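lol ok so funny story. i was supposed to be doing the assay writeup but got distracted and ended up predicting the structure for this chain instead. priorities right. anyway since i did it might as well share w the group, maybe its usefull for someone
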Amino acid sequence: MAGLSVRIVMPVLQEGGNLLPALRALQPLRAQGVEVVVVDGGSTDATWTIARRWADAVRLAPRGRASQMNAGAAGCAADVLLFLHADTRLPPDALQALAAALARGPAWGRFDVRIDGRPAMLRLVSALMNLRSRLTGIATGDQAIFVRRGLFESVGGFAPQPLMEDIDLCARLLPHGRPACLGGPVVTSGRRWERHGVWRTIALMWWLRARYALGTPADPLARAYGYTPAEPVAPAAVAVMAKAPVPGLAKTRLAPLLGAACAARLQRRFVREVVHTVQAAAMGPFTLWCAPDADHRLFRALRRTAGVACAVQPAGDLGARMAHAVDAHFAHHPGLPLLLAGTDCPLLSPGLLHQCAAVLRDHDAVLLPAEDGGYALLGLRRPLAGVFDAVDWSTPRVLEQTRERLRATGARWLELPAAWDVDEAADWRRLRQMLEPMTTTFPDDTDL
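and the output, tada:
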């Protein structure tokens, strides 16, 4: 690319079912030095986990494409920013075409778009979108807008509005020159058009654009479009129960498949991932409860490099150890809810933590059930006596017994859709399938 550096910024929300192919398609560009930054708006599905595996960086930002794309552009040292939707694919020669276009003088641009879908009408819609953009100099987000970083920063980035952020940005870029209109095309999914109907979607888009052009603010238009503003993050502390990644101690049920050493390395990766997730959620105090002690080099490194507060789990079964963590928390923070989790759930994300904390605004407890009959997370707004007593830990009876204990306290609780833990060989294969469906071998470095 003749020395031109590029950062691709991809805003995402609940894209767990579509994100993997989108990010896999960008791996050849990463190999050429392109930086890929995914910005999550609070997903509660597998989005966060997949992005962590396949992007250079994953950030959390308030829901809304403008705020997410600004967060992805922040701190950028690259020459060019390219904003790419998760359901849009770049053409094979995208970087070469982009570099050639910018070398001719324009400081920003976009690609032609082709909407992929069954209705034949989508071909006409695509052609009209491209023609309108060429005539007006206004692009849409589906056209993969790119801009020199300095210009993007000088115009103030995307305006903090929930809709029409792409149109607003283009209007502020136009005084600095017409956009480069690249033939491309990028290919974007027609799922929205197919779900709502082509003619209905066309009518809605034109109605929204006309209202916006006539001066209607973006906020009421966004509400008409079905956009719901995100609520402020509910405060909560987080306690994570973590075993040291010692062969023979951690992930023992995976040792027959992976070997004890690899199982321990997997545990190390899981601990690091959950620490990153909790710190990204930024909800309140975070304590890592360590077993058998806090002296393992991983725990020392997390204290030193990430500022993690580590505490030692006491003796006793899992229930006694979790009860101790709960008591310790409410003794110091009596009015602050607590989320208690382990390190085994690959779907734990900042958005899911935020969702659990929000439940505790008007419930005494929240449960994230696990498919194996246990739970991946328990949140408490206040101490609930006996909730960990007489539970058959590590059995399929854990969830039902916990429900019984909650009923006995008179607590009001909510259960979220079930997640799953990585405990057995089948769980490991499921995780690999979710992250790398084309991979059948196990890497010695357990690079998830």
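The mean pLDDT is 93. The radius of gyration is 24 Å.
back to the writeup now i swear
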